[in-house]
Amino acid sequence: MTNYGRQSINQNDIDAVVQVLQSDFLTQGPAVPAFESALCAYTGAAYCTAVSTATSALHLACLALGVGYGDRVWTSPISFVASANCARYCGAQIDFVDIELETGLMSIHALRDKLEFAASIQQLPKVVIPVHYAGQSCDMRELYKLSRRYDFSIIEDASHALGAQYLQHKVGDAEYSDAVVFSFHPVKMITTGEGGAITTRRLDVDEKVKHLRSHGIKKGNDIDEPWRQDQVALGFNYRLSDMQCALGISQLARLDEFVEKRTQIAKIYEASLPLETITVLTRRDNQISSLHLYPILCKDAIFRKKLYFYLKDYGINAQVHYCPIHLHTYYIDHLKEYYEQLHQQKKGYSKQFEVYEQAEAFYNRVLSLPIYPDLAPERVSEIIDCISHCR
Fold first, then answer.
1. What is the pLDDT of residues 166-190, one digit of tens each?
2. Per-residue pLDDT at 223
3. Are 296 and 281 in contact (CB under 8 A)?
4. Would you say 45 and 199 are in contact if contact means Cβ atoms under 8 Å apart?
5. Which pLDDT score is estimated for 344?
6. Whole-angstrom distance, CA of residue 96 vs CA of residue 264
7. Distance of CA 9 to the CA centre of its chain
8. How far apart are CA 297 and CA 279, in angstroms?
């Protein structure tokens, strides 16, 4: 079966992990800060904290920016549920901003309109979480301008986008945000098995996430009692092990190679896919996508379903990314309660606040084709042939 994505592990990766296994530290050792320093060097960020998953990274980033009960956080409906769950873990209300159909990214036009209306009813968000869908950055410069005007913080969910660039900036340098979150799940750009990281230019954010990553405990500096530890905040066990970080350092050395291989696969797709039945997503000229995913838009929902099963019959496991978060049962209930409160509390409330037409249209047509560094060009051609013969 050819899956939509998979990890690429070589002997150097294996040797790096074995070296840690033979060392004195399997966790909380020197490989963790070494991985964090390598990520800073690659992205241009001032600070980095490695954590257990991108989900825990999102949670810690929200906490570091003071998200709590009664706050509002907005994100994209086209994402994995963790992009919204992180706010709910903090007790905040979650809401969504519609996307651009041609890219799958948060629409700046929709965000601007929603912010203007939210300001009129005093329901502005504390944090906005743009999602760099499939490896392409959102329009962060414009989003940053809106954040200054409407006074909200920004967490970039760059789980798909390590290795991507925006306006000559590496995604992760946090030029236009307060924090950037990465994922190192096996299907992502590099892997640590499971894992995530938070990069930032803000020392206060970095100190907070590092503190909360390990139970909220501070080690004492008392000369008489050097063993003394003190829990000063309710933190979490969100640490990443030295074994995982050693793998991450080895993988990071191959990241540009991975992006180049994905780019070559994308070029094969774009040169030969049958445009009468599918549409290729737009990639902007001022960016370099990491191409974590290769989503296409089928001509309609009926053809998408037919193509999904047609490919599966030929051993090709395409995938749908994603069911819009607001259509999940938990969020249907959550949003219903939230919007009912708005109806009761805010005169002049508009139901337009609740509409995500482009996200739902995108979901009905999207299908992610296989793309990963070790996918052979011959197999890509076979996938294209299958799509061409599906009617």
1. 999 999 999 999 999 999 999 999 9
2. 67
3. yes
4. yes
5. 85
6. 34
7. 22
8. 5
Identify which of 238, 259, 241 has the alpha carbon closest to the alpha carbon of residue 249: 241
Roughly what angle, to the nearest 10 degrees, separates helices 357-365 and 301-313? Answer: 30
What pLDDT score does 349 carry? 74
Token pair belonging to 360: 């739902």
Residue corresponding to tokens 């500096």: 221
Regions of the chain with pLDDT less than 70: 220, 223, 347
CB atoms within 10 A of CB 312: 12
Q: What confidence tens digit (pLDDT) does each residue in 318-348 have?
A: 999 999 999 999 999 999 998 988 888 876 7
Average pLDDT, the chain: 96
Q: Which two tokens stand for residue 267?
A: 């070029």
Distance between CA 181 and CA 131 in Å, rounded? 10
Interstrand relation of 165-166 and 93-96 (parallel, antiparallel or unpaired): unpaired
User: Residue 343 has what pLDDT?
Assistant: 84
Quick one: tokens of 115?
A: 């912010």
Looking at residue 263, its pLDDT comes to: 98
Structure tokens at 117: 């209306």
Instruction: Calculate the dihedral angle through the C-alpha atoms of 166, 189, 57, 36, rounding to the nearest 10 degrees.
Output: -90
